[in-house]
Amino acid sequence: MLLAIYVYLIALISSMPGPWEKGKVKHYSDLHMGDEYTLSRFLWTCLSALCAGVAFLIKGFSGLFVVFLPIVMWLFGHNKKNLTFFVDLIVMLGCWAIIGIFIAMLSPDSHVAVGMYIKNQLIGGLLNEQNVNSHFHILLVLFAQIALALVVTLVVLLFMAKKKSLGTYLNYSKHVDELSPDELRNMRFFWVFICLGFAGVIPIMLGLKQHDYYLLTVIPCFALGCACLVQGHVDRGMAKIGQKGTMALSIVGIMLVFVGILLNLTSLTKITFDKEILTDMKHILPELEEGEVVCVTPEVLEDESIVFYFYRYKNISFDTAPVYPHLITMYANVDGWDNSQPQVPYAERALFDRWILSQ
């Protein structure tokens, strides 16, 4: 998703006049991206849509909120009559339609999985499922996760922006004469990224099914917004500490990046959620054929996570008709259940164990 945002910004930059055309404007940073439409912008926008499509296949609909980026770019643009951003929006939607048609041609049953996802995960999760008590729970989680970034941003502004108040930067459109062209550009992108982040958060707030990992795709937007807010001040501070100080900070930054990458790589094989379901599923999958239909109880069929995991990993579909092999029987056979062993309390048993005992 972040790559989709980055590629779209490249698309806008590619349509800006080159350095040899600087004479057309007062300053290079006076240019507002998106004033012109070029072939390179079209191609980069198509690539951005492709990246967002991949994000959708990995993270679901939370990977598609990049579609709001052209809208917020237009909203904070200097020329509201410039409709090229809506051309970008149409190009993105068209690319997704083409990708959808192509996937449907390769896998005719793909629309079934998408339909089930929309019905069960989106609509069903919005109307029928609840794991929090307040619609604002996700906002509290968001502020908790970005609290450190907000504190650092405020500290930088308080100690390095002594001549201008925070309100001057936030309400930049009314203080054009007080801010430099670079500051105006940065503040525009501050609001672009903040609005884009909330465009990904607000849909989550509509329902009471909220998980912390839903914020994975939007936190980078808030980080980029904070970076835009302090970028100019940090540049001036770096210029004062000299070349050696700059080199030392650069080395520290590179080391932190590598540490972050290593931490992410070490967690690739770890199951962070639905661990119980996935562990039980791995016991059963070797006993099933690709695309097999399995008989399950209504309780299993109502669990969207079970349905989607089995379909994702081996195209297994469920039915309640007793003409198919029964999933619970298969699990009992591969689980190695032994009645002579001490009995584990019901509440401590695995998910499929509890379903077997409930029958």
Average pLDDT confidence is 77
Give the end-to-end Cα distance, rounded to a whole number of Å: 43 Å
Structural category is mainly alpha
Structure annotation, total helices:
15
Whole-angstrom Rg:
26 Å
Sequence of secondary-structure elements: HHHHHHHHHHHEHHEHH
The percent range for strand residues is: under 5%
Structure summary, number of beta strands:
2
* Poorly predicted runs: 18-31
* Shape annotation: globular
User: What share of the residues lie within helices?
Assistant: 55-70%
Keywords:
359 residues; two-stranded parallel ribbon; mainly alpha; globular
Write a brief structural summary:
This protein is an all-alpha fold and 359 residues long.
Descriptive overview:
The chain is built from 15 helices and 2 strands. It has helices at residues 2-14, 39-59, 69-75, 84-106, 110-127, 137-145, 147-160, 166-170, 181-205, 219-266, 275-284, 298-301, 304-314, 327-335, 351-358, and strands at residues 293-295, 317-319. A two-stranded parallel sheet has the order 1-2. The longest helix is centred in the C-terminal third of the chain and has 48 residues, at 219-266. It is globular.
SSE layout:
Blueprint: H1 2-14, H2 39-59, H3 69-75, H4 84-106, H5 110-127, H6 137-145, H7 147-160, H8 166-170, H9 181-205, H10 219-266, H11 275-284, E1 293-295, H12 298-301, H13 304-314, E2 317-319, H14 327-335, H15 351-358
Parallel strand pairs: 1-2
Helix pairs in contact: 1-2, 2-4, 3-4, 3-9, 7-10, 9-10, 14-15
